[in-house]
Design brief:
The complex is a heterodimer of chains A (252) and B (332).
Chain A: E1 5-14, E2 17-27, E3 32-36, H1 43-50, E4 58-63, E5 66-67, H2 73-79, E6 81-84, H3 96-109, H4 126-136, H5 152-164, E7 170-174, H6 182-195, E8 200-204, H7 208-214, E9 217-222, E10 225-230, H8 232-237, H9 239-244
Helix pairs in contact in A: 3-4, 3-5
Chain B: H1 13-31, H2 36-57, H3 66-82, H4 89-111, H5 116-135, H6 139-142, E1 148-149, E2 155-157, E3 162-164, H7 168-191, H8 193-203, H9 205-210, H10 215-241, E4 243-244, H11 251-264, H12 271-288, H13 296-310, H14 314-329
Antiparallel strand pairs in B: 1-4, 2-3
Classes of the chains: A alpha/beta (252), B mainly alpha (332).
Chain lengths: 252, 332
């Protein structure tokens, strides 16, 4: 099977600091891939490059066989790469339904449309997409709440909902469980498991229960370099990984 | 699920209320001791302010250069009419409006490469550029400090007859009709899917771009629409006053329209009209009182500070908040 996303020797240097150093990866469609590594390993930088938020210093990115290196976030999103952010990025004074409607408008209308004399109910398939997304992230009952009034865990789910409503084929989740309580985390794992049926997912996460509970494959980064890539059981057994990262959690 | 316009749940009664208001406004002004002229001036500024509200109140773009479009629209319209190049007031206004919109595309394309304060500074610089172009290189066309005298009052030749709006009340009617169309169009824009994206840009431009909206293109289009509103209002100013003043291009003019929008309530469309009404009325009344005639700007400044600190969402925004709170407070 051919990869939906492929990165070849991606490098990002900030001045003299090389945050990501010739990292290559291939993501097979329909799988959940987790990227782990200690703080400062370059996970978030790698993610930002994959989503088009920052251009790589060198290297290439291909999405569905098409070269997308240097494409901005708007175009990447229109092609089918959705991203939920580490820090919640919502539209605070809009309602929950409106928050999901904004990305749904981009999915249904494209990156720009001069429909100044049209109306929102006339946008084809918009209401269905908003409804489906709210149901998926369990926020249907909160549809008419102002987004800023939601509880923290609900805001995190809305964050994922906003990414989902762009109708991505590839979903990038940047630390979705950050700051969540154990029960909220359990809900999140159930949600992502639900999503895997229709999407390819790449997840950056510190919570090892989430990572090992979800991932088909795990990539381990350290100091901007891939030190391991494989199935969870292999990663767990990998000596270098244990020394670099898991060592702090389990005694070797 | 029923989805409606973002952040605007009021129905068509708003348009109806505006229509009623436009009909009674001259009578109300007469009761306050002012003629239809003051009402006309307020509507022209309200029309100018509709564009400012679209970019500032709905999209979050603060431009200090709107006078460039107000003035250039006015000078183009005036020039066409004075030199009999176009003898239909509506035709001249249309060309002036399109002219201002073209300047809007050019300035927008350049200024929107920056965001926030840097965008505001660029618009300020372009505003000043237009001001000096008017005063010096183009003085043979614009009359420099003397302005452009002899702009005819509005008339619309239809072939078989000519609609005459040359009386004071006639000019009011002409301006009021255009204001009404301007208001209806602005409200449609705000309530459209396009308008929903503008609101998203106001709330969180980075996320709006990240979910797949071409934010810069949306900004450029709404900036151009605002320039068109300014140009139309400028054209009307020349007709109404019978001459086009160079001050229409000044930084004072750019600043005043923002102040009016902020006083009235940004993001409400009606706000700029209310702000223009209060500002213009106070200014005229204060100038008529001997003791304070020389310090009227100081008093207006204080009123501005009081209104902005008291009503952070402007007068209209404040009223809307009060009504919503009361609605929520009363159990069904």
């Amino acid at each position: 099977m051919s990869a939906i996303l492929e990165a070849r020797k991606l490098t990002k240097a900030f001045g003299g600091l090389v945050a990501v150093n010739e990292v290559s990866l291939e993501i097979e469609p329909g799988r959940i891939t987790a990227i782990i590594g200690p703080n400062g390993a370059g996970k978030t930088t790698l993610f930002k490059m994959l989503a088009g938020e920052i251009p790589p210093t060198s290297g290439e990115i291909y999405f569905k066989g098409k070269r997308i290196t240097g494409l901005d976030a708007t175009s990447s999103c229109q092609l089918g790469i959705g991203k939920s952010h580490q820090v919640t990025q919502i539209f605070p004074s809009l309602t929950v339904a409106e928050n999901v409607m904004i990305p749904a408008l981009a999915a249904r209308r494209g990156s720009f449309k001069l429909d100044i004399f049209s109306s929102i109910p006339r946008v084809d398939g918009l209401a269905t997409l908003v409804e489906r997304t709210l149901t998926a992230v369990g926020l249907m009952e909160r549809a008419n709440f102002r987004a800023e009034d939601l509880a923290y865990g609900e805001k995190r789910r809305l964050e994922i909902g906003i990414a989902l409503a762009t109708q991505p084929e590839l979903l990038l989740l940047d630390e979705p469980a950050a700051g969540m309580s154990p029960s909220e985390t359990a809900d999140l794992v159930a949600l992502v498991k639900e999503l895997r049926n229709s999407l390819t997912i790449v997840i950056v996460e510190h919570d090892m229960d989430v990572v090992f509970g979800l991932a088909d494959e795990i990539m381990v980064l350290q100091d901007g370099v891939t030190i391991a890539f494989g199935r969870p059981e292999d990663i767990r057994a990998d000596r270098r990984v244990r020394e670099a990262y898991l060592g702090g959690l389990e005694s070797v | 699920m029923r989805l409606g316009p973002v952040g605007d749940r009021s129905g068509w009664w708003v348009e109806a209320a505006i229509a009623v208001f436009l009909v009674v406004f001259p009578t109300v002004m007469a009761a306050l001791g002012a003629g239809p002229d003051l009402a006309t001036r307020i509507l022209i500024l309200g029309l100018f302010g509709l564009g400012v509200d679209l970019i500032f109140g709905f999209t979050g773009l603060l431009s200090f250069g709107q006078a460039a479009f107000f003035g250039s629209g006015g000078f183009i319209t005036g020039y066409l009419l004075i030199h009999n190049i176009v003898n239909n007031s509506l035709g001249a206004l249309a060309i002036g409006t399109i002219g201002a919109a073209i300047f809007g595309v050019v300035i927008g394309e350049l200024a929107l490469r920056q965001t926030g304060v840097y965008f505001a500074m660029l618009t300020l610089a372009f505003g000043e550029l237009f001001y000096f172009l008017d005063l010096s290189p183009l003085r043979n066309y614009t009359g420099s400090e003397n302005g452009m005298p002899g702009v005819p009052k509005p008339t619309v030749p239809l072939g078989f007859t000519t609609l005459d709006f040359t009386s004071n009340l006639g000019t009011y009617v002409f301006v009021a009709i255009l204001y009404f169309f301007g208001f209806v169009i602005a409200r449609r824009i705000v309530r459209s899917p396009f308008g929903a994206v503008l609101r998203a840009i106001l709330e969180n431009p980075e996320r709006a771009a990240a979910v797949g909206h071409d934010v810069r293109r949306y900004k450029l289009v709404v900036f151009t629409i605002a320039a068109a509103y300014a140009g139309l209002a400028g054209g009307l100013l020349g007709m109404f006053q019978g001459y086009m003043p160079y001050e229409a291009l000044s930084i004072d003019q750019s600043g005043e329209i923002i102040v009016m929008t902020v006083i009235g309530g940004p993001g409400t469309l009606i706000g700029p009209l209310v702000g223009a009404g209060i500002w213009t009325y106070l200014r005229q009344e204060l100038q008529n009182i001997d003791v304070i005639a020389s310090i009227w700007k100081l008093i207006l400044g204080l009123v501005f500070i009081l209104l902005v600190t008291g009503f952070r969402r402007g007068i209209v925004g404040g009223v809307v908040t009060l009504v919503e709170r009361r609605k929520r407070g009363v159990p069904r």
